[in-house]
Specification:
Radius of gyration: 12 Å
Number of helices: 8
Pfam families: DUF2388
Protein name: DUF2388 domain-containing protein
Order of helices and strands: HHHHHHHH
Organism: Marilutibacter chinensis
Number of strands: 0
Strand content: under 5%
Keywords: Signal
Shape: globular
Oligomer: single chain
Largest sheet: none
Number of domains: 1
Length: 100
């Protein structure tokens, strides 16, 4: 599941937000990402990224001036897991998190 999430994030970075949103819908079933995370249906690693959505939104909306702790944790997690995420900017990864 972690690898699938990273692939979706990286694909979203390449300019395919429609695919990323359909991925989020299909991977979470009929529930939203938030209820999916709270129900325990995602792994702990996925929760790090899902729980960073609010921080990612603040980061994008303020053009990077607000950097929440959950966003920082998600960025670190993504970069630890995937070499392509290491190459992406913080803004690009934040936008990808929002696309899920």
């Amino acid at each position: 599941m972690n690898r699938l999430l990273l692939v979706a994030l990286l694909f979203a970075l390449s300019g395919a937000p429609a695919w990323a949103s359909s991925f989020a819908g299909s991977s979470a079933g009929a529930s939203s990402a938030g209820s999916s995370a709270s129900s325990g249906s995602t792994s702990g690693d996925d929760k790090v990224v899902v729980q960073a959505r609010d921080d990612a939104a603040a980061f994008v909306a303020t053009e990077g001036r607000i950097r929440g702790a959950r966003l920082e944790a998600a960025l670190m997690h993504l970069r630890e897991r995937d070499p392509q995420a290491r190459e992406a900017s913080d803004m690009a990864l934040a936008k990808a998190i929002l696309a899920l």
